[in-house]
Amino acid sequence: MFIVSLANQKGGVGKSTTTVNLGSEVSRSKRVLVIDLDPQGNASKVLSNGETSFEFNDSISALFDKPKNTNIRDLIRPVMAKEKSINNFDFIPADYQLSRVIETSLTKINRERILEKHLQKIENDYDIVILDTPPNLSLTTLNAIQASDLILIPVDSGAFSLDGISPLLDAIDEIKDEDSNFLILRNEIDSRNTLINKFISSELSAVQERVLDITVRKSEDLSQANALSTPLRFYKPGSVINNDYKALAKHMLSMV
What we know:
Number of strands: 8
Number of helices: 11
CATH superfamily: P-loop containing nucleotide triphosphate hydrolases
CATH architecture: 3-Layer(aba) Sandwich
Structural class: alpha/beta
Distance between the termini: 8 Å
Strand order of the largest sheet: 3-4-2-5-1-6-7-8
Strand content: 15-25%
Number of domains: 1
Helix content: 25-40%
CATH class: Alpha Beta
CATH topology: Rossmann fold
Order of helices and strands: EHEHHEEHHEHEHEHEHHH
Largest sheet: 8 strands, mixed
Shape: globular
């Protein structure tokens, strides 16, 4: 089982959208589980085909609230698109109470390994697990980093999208030590914005060997798919942006 975290302390860079659509593409050939660790629950909404609230005991909140008494398998549900379940594609939703639960979990022993220990119990059930994290270094993000084989950091074309990278990399180095493994994904690229694209490239030059050659282009198709709570390949199979996620999925699978 290969575990990937989507992380960046800057919000709005496309973590949830990448999580959903990367998972969707990988599930064409592999068993995929997405775990939503962001109390905002954006990935959960899309993967459930529009649900906006989830029962506490059916969400990832239950796992962090009572890790010894919760069976992770009880939280797993199938991804839905156009009112049909998707083969090979499951998820665990986030609940809005996750923030409160995390605060009370700060005193737990081995709190940074709660998720890792539970994922070990299902290591033969899935080929790839994708973790969608909140835009901060909360306990859920630290759990995700600890459990992951790879941290994928989306960076969009916003001038401030790089602000969250430095503290995140510090956290990765501290937690993973010599096993640190991260890649940066240029996301929502608009080829017309040559100035900002050059600026982002320049800013990333110090970690150029970690920047993927694969990029995801900016598209109204993605905005519409998110609005309708549907992964892009089910909303608009003919969208050229699907090719970007296919390329990203192929790269992820090459690492497994």
